[in-house]
Amino acid sequence: MKIAVIGTGYVGLVTGTCLAETGNDVTCVDINVAKIQKMQAGELPIYEPGLDLLFHRNISQKRLTFTTDLALAVKDAQIIFMALPTPPGGDGAADLSYILGAAKDIAHLITDYKIIVNKSTVPVGTADKVSAIFKTYTDIKVDVVSNPEFLREGVAVDDFMKPDRVVLGTTSEHAKKIMTELYAPYVRQGNPILFMDERSSELTKYAANSFLATKITFMNEIANLCELLGADVDAVRKGMGSDERIGKRFLFPGIGYGGSCFPKDVQALVKASDENVYDFKILKSVMEVNELQKTILVDKVITYFNQNISGKHFAIWGLAFKPETDDVREAPALYIIKALLDNGASVSVFDPEGMENVKSIFEDKINYATDQYSVLEGANALLIATEWSVFRNPDFEKMSAIIADRVIFDGRNLFELAKMIELGYYYNSIGRALIE
Ligand code: NAD
């Protein structure tokens, strides 16, 4: 099939590449000229494991091309995917200007029937709004399909190639048939394609992300309570997770959820609820608790240094909002850095992939190290903000020689408590006994 993908971010580029991988002819469009030039030159603009192989293979086999020319991309496309940003607007509601603007542009360009698929996370009613735009600006028939994306950064290629489910919101029988054919290669193992109406499909994405954010937040509160009650959150987590109704996944406590999705999606669902005079109390608490959790490590640091960290120097391991991505949007590390700087401390950071993105935020306000050991030089303590595998089993001898005070605040519970006792560290983690 001939496909256009509008927007080449984490979702659009993975979608376009993975659709090309099953033999489709895909043209990806973006307004970011530098990004398109980079991809035309065969360079990936993001870090996403496994993407480079598929990206290069499909470019060389001419199934995957990049352009800034929307008209060129939509001309022959049977299906047009929109993978555009839906950032929070000033009032917390999702900003639909990218989606509605692109819909209007496409409406002016098309000369025959198209299926318009929305992959962005959008409020309920957006498919209706997009359909209305097409009706206003063209006589050409289109079917607008809601197809929320559930991929996770860091494992996005796997998630796209073998999704747990594909959700398709449409009442058009023709669109159903075409979309079923398009997705057939991805659900061969029997995972479902779930057809539903557009509004239910749109809400499914917000409900899923908000539920996951709630699950994380619940565990963060259990962890905070563990510290006060002298319980161990690892034991509690395993005890809870063995119950199949709860499940083992997503029960790891930490320093709050971040990323480009959970914070904005929870906020957008709360906003949509408020607009419909529904007080979504749980989600409001989730947002409130998460705000506090993002800087809980800094609170611990300040307590340790007798309420004064002015002039102290801190090393941070991990900047990305989670491992295996370079995405630092809404990453807890950013809040930690800001809180440390606001309290008069200085900061050195290291992340395997997120350095460039953080440089554009903090510029020369912090120091950027080249590896996980040199970042420790001169630090009064190490703070761990992302659970990259490379941090899990460090050379403690090397570390201890650099960081004389042996003080670690671990927001991701990377190390065994017994090991830290043996090594003689002060080790303050989340929901577990304090080692001093
Ligand atoms: P992103 O910010 O990484 O990428 C968006 C891209 O769209 C950018 O490259 C931008 O230049 C481009 N763009 C903006 N306006 C354009 C226009 N008019 N024409 C062409 N390109 C344009 O965003 P993302 O992370 O890929 O997210 C896209 C959507 O998917 C959002 O609604 C998000 O909530 C949702 N989503 C994201 C993820 C994720 O893990 N990132 C997962 C599921 C769903």
TrEMBL record:
It comes from the Bacteria. It comes from Pedobacter frigidisoli. One of its GO terms (molecular function) is UDP-glucose 6-dehydrogenase activity. SMART domains: UDPG_MGDP_dh_C (SM00984). NAD(+) binds at residues 30, 35, 86, 121, 153, 264, 329. The lineage of its organism: Bacteria, Pseudomonadati, Bacteroidota, Sphingobacteriia, Sphingobacteriales. This is UDP-glucose 6-dehydrogenase. Pathway: Nucleotide-sugar biosynthesis; UDP-alpha-D-glucuronate biosynthesis; UDP-alpha-D-glucuronate from UDP-alpha-D-glucose: step 1/1. It is an enzyme of class 1 (oxidoreductase). GO terms for biological process: polysaccharide biosynthetic process; UDP-glucuronate biosynthetic process. PANTHER family: UDP-GLUCOSE 6-DEHYDROGENASE TUAD. Pfam families: UDPG_MGDP_dh (PF00984), UDPG_MGDP_dh_C (PF03720), UDPG_MGDP_dh_N (PF03721). The active site is at 261 (nucleophile). Keywords: NAD, Oxidoreductase. Its EC number is 1.1.1.22. Belongs to the UDP-glucose/GDP-mannose dehydrogenase family.
